[in-house]
Every structure is written in C-alpha cells, then in structure tokens.
C-alpha cells in the first residue's frame, strides 16, 4: 500500500502563488508515476500535472502550462506542485495520485481557493 499526504493549499489572491506538497509513504519503491489532479464543484476530476518517475517525463493540462511546475525530491519521497499566476478558475480541491502497477492511490485532497 501507498499513503499520500498533501499539504500547502489555502486562499490566495489572483496572480499569487502556492506550492503543494505530497509526501508518499509505504511501498513507494514501485511507484511508476505521480501526479496532481483537481476537482471543482460540479466538474469531473481532471489531471493537472503528471511525472513519470523513472524517466522524469512531465505533462501538464493546457490550462496550466507555463504557470504550474511539478517536481520531486527523491530523498523525501515528496512531489511538489508549484503554482504561479493563479487564476480564480484554478479554484478546486487538489489531489495527489500515485500509480503502482495497476493500482491508483489518492491523497485526501487540499483546497485551493483563488479569490480577491
């Protein structure tokens, strides 16, 4: 099993920045890919950014390209999402995801609210 613990959400003004963290524990040795998803009220959960661990390949939703950056600290088993130039439409609950073999693991989610 893999446990994911997110932190770093909050309230920020438009144009501001936040950094989300996702600390993985448990059977982390076989995680192939990690990512950040978000879900706004009334919307489906969508992929924001993904990172393939063995290659370092990253991909982003078109709506966040150039503003968000996913990165990792292998020593801490932690993945980050740096969010810059935040917009009101970025408001959502953000979830960390880990893919291990055919399994998906999710964090509890962290609220990000962009509002003046």
Could you write a compact summary of the structure shown?
This protein has 116 residues and is an all-beta fold.
Produce the secondary structure layout.
Elements: E1 2-7, E2 10-12, E3 18-26, E4 31-39, E5 46-52, E6 58-60, E7 68-73, E8 78-83, E9 92-100, E10 103-106, E11 110-114
Parallel strand pairs: 2-11
Antiparallel strand pairs: 1-3, 3-8, 4-5, 4-9, 5-6, 7-8, 9-10, 9-11
Keyphrases for this structure?
single chain; 116 residues; mainly beta; 7-stranded mixed sheet; 4-stranded antiparallel sheet
Structure, explained:
28% of the residues are buried. 0% of the residues lie in helices and 58% in strands. A hairpin with a 5-residue loop joins strand 5 and strand 6 (58-60). The mean pLDDT is 95. It has 116 residues and is mainly β. The strands form two sheets. Strands 2, 4, 5, 6, 9, 10 and 11 form a seven-stranded mixed beta sheet that branches. The chain has a four-stranded antiparallel beta sheet with strand order 1-3-8-7, with no helix packed on it.
Order of helices and strands: EEEEEEEEEEE
Low-confidence runs of at least 5 consecutive residues: none
Percentage of residues in strands: over 45%
Tell me about the largest β-sheet.
7 strands, mixed
Number of DSSP strand runs: 11
What is the tally of helical segments?
A: 0
What is the radius of gyration?
A: 13 Å
* Helix content percent band: under 10%
Structural class call reads mainly beta
Roughly how many Å apart are the termini? 40 Å
Mean pLDDT: 95
Oligomerization state of this entry?
A: single chain
Identify the overall geometry.
Answer: globular
């Amino acid at each position: 099993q893999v446990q994911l613990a997110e932190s770093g959400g909050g309230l920020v003004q438009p144009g501001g920045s936040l950094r989300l963290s996702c600390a993985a524990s448990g059977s982390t040795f076989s995680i192939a890919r990690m990512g950040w998803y978000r879900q706004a009220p009334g919307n489906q959960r969508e992929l924001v950014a993904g990172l393939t661990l063995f290659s370092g390949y990253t991909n982003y939703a078109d709506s966040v390209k150039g503003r968000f950056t996913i990165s990792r600290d292998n020593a801490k088993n932690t993945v980050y999402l740096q969010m810059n130039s935040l917009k009101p439409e970025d408001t959502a609950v953000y979830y960390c995801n880990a893919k291990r073999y055919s399994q998906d693991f999710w964090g509890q989610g962290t609220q990000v609210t962009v509002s003046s």
